[in-house]
Design brief:
154 residues, alpha/beta, Rossmann fold, six-stranded mixed β-sheet, two-stranded antiparallel sheet, 4 helices, 8 strands
Length: 154
């Protein structure tokens, strides 16, 4: 399974700012440049994550996609809750998770090192792609970690 982890765009309170919307559009451009074709788009229930997810998912012309918002992907949620949900999926493609720090940092670290202590730090709009063999510690391979600025129009 390919997991695409994206920290929500910059927000004022819980609403995406214009910069945050631009970051979401950049993240979508990055995914398109990499020929990713996500079929499932997940966000936490926070509005800034939902808005980021919606901007990204709306940029794809998929025949079928699923949008989900769950508390299991909030900033301080335990990783096992999100992993339990992901384990029930049969994506047939990539899964995008638009979420928050520290959750995303812990999830990346879990798959790469087996520990939830952050070994990486993502920023608003950054794109991290993991190939995950099993939803277990140390069963992920880092495919790409792309700063949002890389998605600027060329």
């Amino acid at each position: 399974m390919r997991l695409i982890l994206i920290q929500h765009g910059l927000a004022d309170e819980d609403v995406l700012s214009e910069t945050g919307k631009q970051q979401a559009r950049r993240a979508a451009r990055i995914l398109k440049r990499l020929d990713e074709e996500p079929s499932i788009f997940i966000a936490s229930t926070k509005q800034r994550a939902v808005a980021t997810r919606d901007i990204i998912s709306d940029s794809f012309e998929a025949d079928f996609s699923v949008k989900v918002s769950l508390d299991a992907f909030k900033a301080t949620a335990p990783t096992d809750e999100g992993l339990a949900y992901i384990g029930e999926l049969d994506p047939g493609g990539s899964v995008v998770i638009c979420g928050h720090v520290p959750y995303l940092n812990k999830l990346i670290s879990f798959f790469l090192t087996g520990k939830e202590e952050a070994v990486v730090e993502v920023s608003n709009g950054d794109v991290t792609i993991l190939e995950v063999e099993e939803l277990k510690a140390k069963h992920g391979k880092l495919i790409a970690m792309i700063p949002n600025q890389m998605g600027a129009k060329s």
